[in-house]
Amino acid sequence: MGVLLGYRLFQLLMLPLVGAAASAAAAPPGCRRRCGEIDVPYPFGIGPNCSREGFSLDCNTTDDGLEKLFLSVVEITDISLPLGQARMLNEISWQCYNVSSKSLESSLWSLNFVGTPYRFSDDLNKFTVIGCDTLAYIGDFERADSYQSGCVSTCHNEVSLVNSSSCSGIGCCQTSIPKDLTYYEVWFDSDFNSSSIWNFSDCSYAVLLEANRFEFLTSYITTTQFWFNNNGKAPLVVDWAIGNETCEVAQRNITSYACISEHSECLNSSNGPGYLCNCSSGYHGNPYVAHGCQDIDECSDKDRYPCHGTCKNLPGSYNCFCPPGTHGDAFNGTCTQQQKLQSSAKVAVLAMA
């Protein structure tokens, strides 16, 4: 990391996105619904008047000639309507010891979603610190009454890393974040640095990332592999929600209520204020647009909706009958042959004899 010189401070100030936006009544026609390989379903949108307020995104052509989806300068790699989540690529902060100047150099990152629909997922993300003799903090540095936390990662030499295969404090540390977190910045404690161990570990890293997509490798300590393999970024999951009202309150205002499709339902956000819309059971599609929730034809997908007999699709459901000449539970495949009436009659005659 010695080639990365100078101190850089990256700060994304995501002011409320209150530009021109579509009404709650319907998704506007003629808007792009795909950027590169990413689907962009309403309430999200690309360009003016194509999204619900606060959900406008940009589709940019990068230096490699590919179209990529962005929220300001942060790349979005996936959007999920049912989960109310989006996956982004988050900048990795670093601190390195420069042998030539005998000084510490840093690149720090902060992310601000205050006033937007987004908040960091407390279930899926963890603040992750990699390095030897490293203490990094996450929180709001300027406000003493706001969230602040830290994580210490230590290792005295290369030998101490031999048996370290998990992120448990030796070379790597992870800590959870609270719910409804919409802003954070990263900084390193200057009393912990790599000046005395630069010969085998000259850099430390800190980033809020999706925990189940991260695997700690001891080579991250002695090389720049962690930073360069990910091009200085790591996957991050954000939760999003509509407004800051509960379902009960939002449903009172029909002009702004977002769950406008028939067969849709409202769910209160589990991470901060606001609500989400989902299609009702037996329906799929987009609950944020008129007629967006369509009936699922369960009979055409027997892997997900088993039927060991005759399948009949119903609005929001389906039925399954045993084949002719059998009876039982066709859903579970326990249909058995029925005895013929003639055979039953013979049994009855014999019983009376």
Summarize the structure.
With 353 residues, the chain is mostly beta strands.
What's the number of domains?
3
What about the largest sheet? 9 strands, mixed
Share in β-strands = 35-45%
Q: How far is the N terminus from the C terminus? A: 99 Å
Question: What is the subunit arrangement here?
Answer: single chain
The helix/strand class is: mainly beta
**How many distinct beta strands?**
26
- Structural shape: globular
* Gyration radius over CA: 28 Å
What series of H and E elements makes up the topology? Answer: EEEEEEEEEEEEEEEEEHHEHEEEEEEEEH
Number of helices: 4
Tags for this model:
353 residues, mainly beta, Laminin, nine-stranded mixed beta sheet, seven-stranded mixed beta sheet, 26 strands, 7% helix, EGF, EGF-type_Asp/Asn_hydroxyl_site
